[in-house]
Amino acid sequence: MKIERIVLRQLRMPLVHFFETSFSRTYERNIIIVEVVSEGVSGWGEITAGEHPFYNEEWTAAAWIIAQDYVAPRIVGKVLDSAEDVNGLTRHIRGHNMARGGVEAAVWDLQARRKGNPLWKEIAGGVASPARREIPCGVSIGIQNTVDELIGKIETELSAGYQRIKMKIKPGWDVDVIRRIRERFPKTPLMADANSAYTLADAPLLKQLDAFGLTMIEQPLAHDDIIDHAALQAQLATPICLDECIRTAHHAEQAIRLKAGRIVNIKLGRVGGFGEAKRLHDVCQAAGIPVWCGGMLEAGIGRAHNIALATLPNFTLPGDVSASKRYWKRDIIAPEVQTTAHGTIVVTDKPGFGYEIDQDFLRHVTVREETVSAKGQ
Ligand code: OSB
Ligand code: MG
User: Fold this and answer.
1) How many domains does the chain have?
2) Residue whose CA is closest, atom 6 of ligand 1?
3) Count of CA atoms in the C-beta half-sphere (13 A) of 335
4) Atom of ligand 1 nearest to the CA of 327
């Protein structure tokens, strides 16, 4: 497939409710959407960088420059045998996996649409049906102003059917909060995500969480650390799930070798797209490490890509893939992503990522647009 042009669009979309992690509170997302065009067909991807370089080193403004000046020019004008090629063509760009991954995912969507295949089929190498037709869904609930507000949110999500509750924690919003939540919800599968807010010196505090039967604690230590996580895991009964520190399949191999965690959260952007996400999935599967699909407050395109990813066989745990309406008054895809009463998303058989772009609304929320074309065109 000859890539004729890549259109980048920056969107501004207010969240229906602020989302607070240990590193910041977000009210509005600035998302970059990638459209890759070949012979009249468009493939779509989403760059999942946040508004600030706090989750990892990427953020919208930098991701835009990397996508426009480094990633797109290496893809536009090329004839690709497969979407697999994008990773190799951009791998020498150090870091910036989200910018690379948004473009890579768009090329996968393009490839699927050109063949009339659903994206899940394309990424799984043409299998007749996905490993699962319904994706088990959990929710990630940010830090609230009060524990009572958090309890209210959990009640809402459980009555919507979601299968597990993830809470964000940070120093000062941890053991006492989780204790109250566990008392109020004795049987609910609960987990906590610290987004790197602690150090190994906090091991005694984190050990107190063992009393609450959490299914896992996500990325308690530094965003780039594996070694201290191994030391911490040796002291905790609660399984550690790694997020930020796993950016490649090779990182997962190293983390598994060191016993730095027992579960891995796979995010398409963080690892640079479907090619690396699949390799990472396979490494974990071979080692008996279950994975689940993480989220980055995506709009519909990123959400739909996550659904496709979560059909792969080792995504056995509920992910942070949830309904559009939890984040958006109106999404940029139609229909919006919806969940069943038992907390699943049903995978579609439509071509590509399986939903339509709501072009009117996309235009409405676009604040910046730039096209990268092949030289001489
Ligand atoms: O660490 O999983 C995370 C959102 C922004 C940045 C990091 C994370 C998150 C989430 C949200 O937990 C998951 C979602 O998109 O629902
Ligand atoms: Mg996380």
Assistant:
1) 2
2) 296
3) 9
4) 16
